[in-house]
Structure formats: C-alpha cells, structure tokens
Amino acid sequence: MGKKAGGKKEEKQTRSQWEGKHPEPKSRVDERKVVATVKLAAPVCNLLEFKLDCSPSTKISFIVDRIIDRHGGSISDLSVCVNRFHPEEIVGRDKTLEQCGVFGGECLIYYDFVPRAGALLA
User: Where does the record place the region Disordered (predicted)?
Assistant: First the structure.
C-alpha cells in the first residue's frame, strides 16, 4: 500500500461478494390496522363496550387480557368470537385476528364469561 500525504497509509476498500445480492430485510411490524369493537355478548351493555386499535397479527390472548383489564381483573374463563357470537365459533387464545378472517378495517369481538360464585363485593 502506498503512502498518502501526511504519512497515513492508504486503505484499500474491499467489497463483500454478497453486497447488493440480498433483499432488503422486511419489517416485523405489522402496518395493517384493525379497529376492533369489543362487546359483551349478553346482556347487551354499552358501558362494557370499547374500541381497541390493533393489527391482523394481534392474538386473541392480547384481546382477552384487555377485556379482563377493563373488568378490573374480576373475570376469567372468557369465550371469544369474532364478528358473530355463536358457541360453535368460539376461537382459541392462540389464534390471530388474521386466522379468524380479519385482514384490516373494522371488526367486532364478542365475549362472554361465567360469573364466579361469591363474585359480589360486600
């Protein structure tokens, strides 16, 4: 290698044999948007209805956790359905909204639960 002015060594730049051959990495953030309206299936109560901003990759377990939070942790063993409430259409907590047919836009999430014995406060 030759010397440049000032006594510094000239550094030769080498290019990797793989440079420019790989595709750009994809983002792991789901940019698609879903506005889920979460409702108690029965009895109908507008006070327990809320909207949740999420994406199609959102798991049902995340939605269940938000429902339980809204009830102050006083409920458990929820049944959840997407866009229609029917006992044969209860979805598992490990599924995503996308696996339930929601790819964007708006959807309805219905939930129900069995009250616990002794749940009333004294």
Answer: 1-30
Give alpha helix (H) positions in the chain.
60-70
CA distance 17 to 30: 32
CA atoms within 13 Å, Cβ hemisphere of 107: 27
**Rounded-to-integer distance, Cα 11 and Cα 104, Å:** 52
Q: Which residue has the tokens 């510094």?
A: 8
pTM higher than the cut 0.85: no
Question: Which residues, in sequence order, are bridge partners of residue 46?
Answer: none
Cβ burial of 104 (10 Å; 0-12, 13-18, 19+) is middle
- Side chain identity, residue 18: W
